[in-house]
Design brief:
Chain lengths: 715, 47
């Protein structure tokens, strides 16, 4: 059965599935062979579904089905198998994966060519002469020319794009070096010369492509991690037309005034106003807070919100680009433009490196011409200089260091999205924190448990065990964390909106909404036993190590600041505990403006936040981090996402990033040191293809070995 | 010397064969789901 989905089953002639369609679903809950078998076999048995194929790494399932089945039907089919699923909007179009695959192909070709040419070159170096050498050179040319044309494309393309805009990057000296070396070698082969440099050119491509592949792999891995946490907004909605008929309509075809039927468990595809029905909706993607919000007829609901309790009818007020999420996405896009102007370390080095290398090469050509070595000899030496100085070690050194550091961080629960994020993280000198959900846990934690007798705690745990209410869950976590054993209750019952009741022996116990007082800002519940009542209050607690982490960051030379949308009174306690200035009443635009102001005064800001209201600030910060409990948009905007309840990963990531940049700079120094030895040799005309091959491999090995030291970076 | 004219084409075509095999494996999606491939062997066929 396992291989069944590989080969789509033969279509029955009677069922006549002529319009098959392919849909993609994210299923975050699957994690083992049993899940794969259940989903693939279960879906294949569902009428209308031709085949299903699970991708466990990406936590996705690809379904081939009759076009009569709508996404909600498929979703229900997966739910019937016991898995939560979210439809993914665009199947198949994965630019990053395609680019990665292209790089791996180029790497394979370059590796094949480098091995074979090296084999031929070794024979030439060990003394092949005359016709044999000539034949080996021709063979090398035959392998090298298509290889350079194919495997060199990523470099040529990027170099050409840079040159056309009048800029230079790492790829410009690489492209010039490879092309000149190849051209010169072809000429040498044509005139029957002694040395051809095909091996050098192809090996250079191989090493550099290895660096590119590492870079692309790292980005892909972190993206997959974030995408697995990500829930997409609905691809469409069930519409109710005037005749009372319902039909499925794609999100792009929704218009204001249409009426959507949103069943429990579905996401809204457009902004709207509730017409009929009452339900709780989860807008965690907007606020990062998990407690559902009650909506009644007349209330506004946003696209992407998850309807939890019951079916509602919603009249569309805004769809597509006019929705609230789309607005915030635009604001974030604009804010992120500053970040895209960031020039990576390797390219910054190339700004000095490329002109000096080209100048050196030209000077040695001119020098040997003046001395009278002849055109041919001088050109050979110039090419040798260009090849030996080609930033092989640099191109490999940076991604190698970054992927090792990112791997180490990932093991400790920090997903860094790419190498440039790591570089920017190392440069920050001011850390700006959001409060709710970032410095605090963003969920209620009971405050008054210490005052309760042991027996009461046991009763309380027994009461809350069966309830899914957020406050019950918070109580259960706290009590179970203390090792409380639940008491034996009888008559246990939950009444929606009222709370839990039960009996301990012949005494009535209950946990419910407080009768005595209504607090505006604090969450509270009342525990009743017999005729006595205890008020249990809840607060949004600080993350367990928030105070230490902020002190740690200050010790590392970062200034810290709290920026919150909350009331200033709610901030005083936290500001006092963390000894940090706090600014309250900030709207998203205000946070953005604050970051701009800090930037203008020369600071590089690390933004740490979770809610959608932090999204623009996250995008605008020099670097940014978000907890894994954050809203989807914030996780997308942030450079790094950290898992768990602790805040320490923030300090750890900054420290690891600084170490990485230090190692990268060491690698630059190593590469320059190597050039100091090798370039005079090349200028003097002593570099043969053999010397170049040895020098290139050794310098690459040294920088990789240095990068591997970062394995222990995340501590 | 005559041995070379036979051996070199053989060596190169074997190398090319390996390259072609890798391309085929990449194209047919064998590296798309490394976790899944590891788990699939455990699926019980006769359920």
């Amino acid at each position: 059965m396992a291989s069944q989905a590989l080969i789509p089953p033969a279509t029955d002639s009677e069922t006549d599935i002529d319009t098959t369609q392919i849909s993609l679903f994210a299923v975050p809950g699957m994690h083992c062979a049993g899940c794969i078998g259940k989903i693939e076999n279960g879906l294949a048995r569902t009428p209308g579904i031709a085949s299903a194929r699970v991708n466990l790494s990406a936590k996705r399932v690809t379904i081939q089905h009759d076009s009569a089945l709508s996404p909600p039907d498929l979703r229900a089919a997966i739910a019937a198998l016991g898995f939560e699923a979210e439809p993914l909007a665009d199947p198949g179009v994965d630019v990053a994966a395609a680019e990665n695959r292209m790089l791996i192909r180029a790497l394979a070709v370059a590796g094949f060519a480098a091995m074979n040419i090296m084999l031929l070159s070794v024979s030439v170096w060990s003394g092949a002469e005359g016709g044999t050498r000539q034949m080996f050179h021709w063979l090398s040319a035959l392998i090298a020319l298509p290889t350079v044309a194919y495997a060199g494309r990523p470099f040529f393309r990027s170099a050409w794009a840079a040159v056309r805009q009048g800029r230079t990057n790492m790829d410009v000296p690489i492209s010039i070096g490879v092309l000149l070396t190849t051209g010169m070698s072809v000429y040498e082969t044509l005139i029957g010369g002694e040395d051809a440099w095909f091996d050098g050119a192809v090996m250079l491509l191989f090493f550099l492509l290895a660096g590119r592949c590492l870079d692309s792999l790292m980005r892909g891995r972190a993206r997959a991690g974030v995408a697995a946490l990500l829930k997409q907004s609905a691809p469409g909605a069930m519409l109710l037309d005037d005749s009372g008929q319902s039909r499925w309509v794609a999100a792009s075809a929704l218009r204001p005034g249409m009426v959507m039927l949103v069943a429990a468990g579905e996401r809204l595809a457009a902004d709207g106003r509730v017409m009929e029905g009452e339900s709780g909706i989860d807008i965690a993607f907007l606020t990062g807070e998990s407690a559902p919000v009650r909506v009644r007829p007349g209330d506004l609901v946003q696209a992407g919100a998850l309807n939890i309790d019951g079916p509602i009818r919603v009249v569309v007020t805004a769809a597509g680009p006019d929705t609230v999420i789309a607005d915030i996405a635009r604001l974030m896009e604009e804010a992120a433009q500053g970040k895209s102007r960031y020039v990576r370390l390797a390219d910054r080095a190339a700004r000095y490196y490329a002109p000096s290398v080209h100048l050196l090469s030209a000077l040695s050509f001119a020098g040997w011409m003046i001395v009278g070595a002849g055109m041919h000899q001088s050109l050979l030496i110039a090419v040798a200089v260009l090849l030996i100085t080609c930033p092989c070690a640099l191109g490999l050194a940076v991604p190698a260091a970054q992927i090792v550091a990112c791997g180490a961080l990932m093991k400790r629960g920090v997903l860094v999205k790419d190498g440039s994020a790591l570089e920017r993280l190392a440069e920050v000198d001011e850390a700006l924190f959001d409060k709710t959900g970032t410095l605090t846990l963003g969920r209620p934690v009971p405050r008054d448990l210490a005052g309760l007798a042991a027996e009461d705690r046991a009763v309380l745990l027994a009461l809350v065990q069966g309830s899914r209410h957020p406050l019950s869950v918070a109580l259960r976590q706290a009590l179970e964390g203390e090792g409380v054993v639940p008491a034996a209750l009888t008559d246990l019952r939950e009444q929606a909106g009222e709370g839990m009741t039960g009996r301990l022996g012949d005494e009535a116990v209950a946990l419910g909404r407080p009768r005595s007082l209504i607090t505006l800002f604090d969450l509270a519940a009342e525990y009743r036993r017999g005729d006595q009542a205890v008020l249990l209050r809840f607060t949004d607690a600080l993350r367990p190590d928030a105070v230490e982490t902020l002190a740690d960051l200050r010790a590392m030379g970062l200034k810290t600041l709290i920026a919150s949308g909350d009331r200033p009174e709610a901030l005083t306690e936290i500001a006092r505990q963390t000894e940090t200035t706090a600014i309250g009443h900030l709207r998203p635009q205000d946070k953005l403006a604050l970051i701009e102001r800090l930037r203008a005064s020369g600071h590089r800001v690390l933004m740490v936040g979770d809610g959608l209201n932090d999204g623009p600030a996250l995008a605008a910060g020099h670097a940014s981090m978000a907890p894994a409990s954050a809203s989807d948009a914030s996780q997308l905007a942030a450079d790094a996402v950290f898992l768990g309840d602790r805040l320490a990963p923030v300090a750890m990531a900054v420290r690891a990033a600084r170490r990485t940049v230090r190692v990268v700079k060491q690698n630059f120094a190593l590469a320059i040191g190597y050039n100091v030895f090798a370039v005079p040799l090349a200028i003097a005309g002593h570099v043969t293809p053999l010397v170049a091959a040895i020098a290139m491999s050794t310098s690459s090995l040294i920088v990789i070995a240095n990068a591997l030291r970062l394995k222990a970076a995340a501590r | 010397m005559t041995g070379l004219t036979v051996l070199i084409p053989i060596a190169l075509s074997l190398g090319l064969l390996g390259l072609a095999a890798f391309f085929w494996a990449l194209g047919s999606g064998q590296f798309d789901d490394s976790d899944g491939a590891a788990a699939r062997i455990l699926i019980d066929d006769d359920e």
